[in-house]
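Hey all, sorry for the wall of text incoming. These are the two entities for the joint prediction.
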Amino acid sequence: MCPQKRERILQTTRKIGDLIIEYFSKAWDSQAQNKPIAWITVFTPVELLRALDIYPVAPEHYGAMCSARGFILNYLEEAERRGYSQNLCSYSRCCLGYVLSGMNGIMPPPDFLVTFRNSCDVYVKWWQSLHRHLEVPLFVGEAPYVLTLEDLENYVLDYVIKQLEQLIGMAEEKFGLKFDMERLVNAVKLSDEASKLWLETLKLRKAKPCPLGGRDSASDIFPLVVMQGTEEAVKFYEELYGEVQEKVSRNEGIIENEKFRLLFDGIWPWHAFDLIKYFEDKGAVFVYEPYSEAWGYRLNPSKPLESIARKVLAMGLNIDIDLRIEKFLKHIKEFQIDGAVLFSNRSCKTWSAPQLVTAEVLNRKFEVPFLLFEADMADPRQYSEAQIKNRVDAFLEVLGEI
Amino acid sequence: MYVGIDAGASATKALVVDKEGNIVSYAIVPSGINFKLSFQKALNEALEKSNLNAKDILYTVSTGYGRALVKAESTSSEIMCISRGVKRLFPSVRTIIDVGGQDSKAIRIDKKGQVLNFVMNDKCAAGTGRFLEVMSGVLEKPIEELSKLHFKSSRPTKISSTCTVFAETEVISYISKGSKIADVIAGLHEAIAERIYNMSSIIGFEKDVVFTGGVAKNKGFVDALSRKIGLSPILPEEPQIICAYGAALAAVKKHEGF
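and here's what came out:
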């Protein structure tokens, strides 16, 4: 298959760029109207903030964006010059570098810092550092690690609900806001609708040829990162679902000559989207990523707080490794996966540490060959292109022989 | 005649086979920075040895880091080439451990010689030939001497750093504290063996195991790794040419296919 100049991408995905710009420009409008801006970590209950009329933005998303657009180094280097170690998470370094260099970008400065320690251990110290630099109110929530699914029903759940109530109380007190239950129910409804559509869209990738590739799934998560609970997010996923379903009915793949169907495990290396294209040029398409799936979480509008608390607990990496592996192993057959690409991410120890367990299960139980490569999700300096592409060549050649 | 070229990070290997896949001749030259030049040099040398010239070559397959830069009809990855070479020479092998100039790899193959899986070192020189090259420079001992000195060690020093640059500092500090060079060298072999052992454990060590790649010529390293794995490996007479041999076998196969 000959290399294509353009990236293979859906029409709907092309709209993400505008959606992001619009989202940030609304954030500035919101600030101009004296509505508080919250900087959140990505698995913070956005729906709740909507019910308080607080506008959420996520520095992690901003870091990914800076990396993808090629201007993250300014921020990383600024943080490093101020003594933040290169071994720290690159999202956190980018964010601190942004703050320390005067916040001259499209992400508006925060009035409120909100985090829940759920999927990531760096969150708390990172948000505390921001608090020291910015001196705005800080809320730190704590979500215990979910060992069994019962934890989503017992005292652990009550503990998180209590903290959500504390967050409401704190926002009302610090910013003179009024929590609105009706708004919450509406946000939960919209958020659930978007999640449902996204999860349904992902299921359509079981089709052969696969209608939606890695470059799409990497971009299309954005509305579920900070836009949950908005009409725009629902509209986006409706459109996406429609386009993908169309493609399936026309029996049309995102790449022309699908030879290998791959699983990708990890956060995407945002600065190296070229790598996805490299795979695709050789007939390999990504059909399933636990990362993409992690953004969809169904909510119950008739039990809004409880439902959000469950989401805070069970999203991302806050659940036991066995539960996580079990969840995606059942997809190996359904998605007809030929091989797995595991991205060991220097920044994200929580994600990378269990990867060898995953690899072993994949290989021993399903005889799925895997490729493990090491780099960083956002820091382009940790990426060795020639070496990684060399491995991709070997990996695909092996898959071709099996 | 058919040629396999392995344009590796530190050495370029050219190997000539006949149509039955028997080795006719080969040459190994340092890669330097000009792959095209070292390719030509290796090829000429190999052809000279067997009194052949360029027009006797029916098909060439290249592999290795510089594979796209050398003149060949087609390319193949090192993983496939090594496996192909090993399958032909040692059909009983199920696990291949290849340590080259810039990469180390562990490959699992089945009865038919098909690759089931492989792992490679992360983006770091520790656990590759480069590590030993750097250390041989630091210790001012030629790479060939490392093997000999290894067996004179009674108590290998513990090199704890996995980073080549930090390990270099560690080596210097051992030497300045009066450690014997032989002990430091044995310690370095232990360190690299440890790293390769850990990496390869992911795919396991099903018997028979073969060591290939330039570093397998270093008896000290072979000794350290064999003890870690707990079994004695098969050692090719010239471990450095297995990958080029696999490329040459691919050349035969490709040519027949036309």
